[in-house]
Amino acid sequence: MAENSCSEWVRDICCIIIIVILLDSLFLFILWAVVIGVDYHVVGASLTEFNLTSDNMLPHNLRLNVTLMNPTTKIVLHRRIEVTAYYCDQQFGVTNFFAPFRQVPKNTTLLHPVFHGESRLFLDIPKNTTLRPTVLLKLHVHPKYKIGSLKIGARSDDLNCQLMVPLVSSVGSSATTFKSTKCVGPPLPEFNGR
């Protein structure tokens, strides 16, 4: 009789383990099917001021066009998007989009982050050096995916966009054009914009 109760106990444990594995696999499949989601691209940039002064101040005027492409058949709820700009590993601007918005399936949404002002940077570069306007843009996004009445994906993503932004002269032209850049994660290796 002890052997019989032992075998039932082992059978019950095996059934529980199999059920947990199946439920876990189903959850991971749903997560995989949904999270192949939004693509983030910087499709336009305008830099009209970017000069380091003798007192290490960086006056800047950077305007961007960022697209959020939802290629899935699911609704995406964007709770908050934070866009931060860096030059030579030092932050010089941040913009937040706090208003939550819904992105319908098979849709592209355009955001317009603007970085305008002055920031103090501590750079070890000789005076009168022309700065290469290479900017690292970091996006901190909080998407949720909606499947029916179920909302999943309350995690945060950190994405990076390494941009070569041409400096527009006072007459409104630049020597080069901006190339569209896809934002990727995890973080890029050490980045130095000089």
TrEMBL record:
One GO term describing the cellular component? membrane
Q: Which domain of life is it from?
A: Eukaryota
Q: Which GO terms describe its biological process?
A: defense response to other organism
Kindly state which keywords UniProt assigns to this record, in alphabetical order. Answer: Membrane, Transmembrane, Transmembrane helix
Q: Where in the cell is it found?
A: Membrane
Where does the chain cross the membrane? 12-35
What's the protein called, per UniProt? Late embryogenesis abundant protein LEA-2 subgroup domain-containing protein
Q: What is the lineage of its organism?
A: Eukaryota, Viridiplantae, Streptophyta, Embryophyta, Tracheophyta
